[in-house]
């Protein structure tokens, strides 16, 4: 049985919300360079809704149940393109661990992989298009490697480090999706804001689990 209980999972998500809110201005600045400048605000709105929804969770609510609650809260709160992307990610991630009470290393990697697949199915972006996918893909790859013989903390730390590397690498990419696509080659040299918020989220989950 894994160490991530539903209660610890919800604490990880609350922390993700806290760190997204703390990084709001940086995320909006990044979006101001290649998008419409609202990414920090849209993520803050979405994560505050998630935090409020999780605060109402029953004590015995499963991780899948909490993920459904998060998806609904995020979708209802966020009108920007990230709203349905994250809502689908949370729904799929929860469904991937529906047979679990607690998450072990493998289940955590499966949760992350399903979140990525949800974003891909919903947004249809490919790796290299300069989106949040470019942080999620290396995060999931490294998480799955770590899950082969590592702990839950190894998995989430690997995901965090993969997301950071992927985020940094988005600076070299030319955007082919979302608002920044109309900049074409001028989007080069700048980090994608959705990739940045992906890193912030995974970094916060790792920090919460380490405590
Ligand atoms: P909006 O562009 O509607 O203002 P946000 O600013 O909240 O929405 O989010 C922008 C981010 O959304 C981008 O930086 C990118 O990472 C991500 N994004 C946009 N379109 C897609 C897509 N089709 N698939 C995955 N991610 C996407
Ligand atoms: Mg935007
Ligand atoms: Mg917008």
TrEMBL record:
Q: Where is this region: Disordered?
A: 169-189
Domain DhaL, which positions? 7-207
Listed A to Z, the keywords are: ATP-binding, Glycerol metabolism, Kinase, Nucleotide-binding, Transferase
MF GO annotations:
ATP binding; glycerone kinase activity; phosphoenolpyruvate-glycerone phosphotransferase activity
Nucleotide-binding: present as a keyword of the record?
Answer: yes
Output the GO biological process annotations, alphabetical, semicolon-separated.
glycerol catabolic process
Specify whether Transmembrane helix is a keyword of the entry.
no
UniProt GO cellular component terms: cytosol
List the protein's name: phosphoenolpyruvate--glycerone phosphotransferase
Q: Tell me the organism.
A: Martelella mediterranea DSM 17316
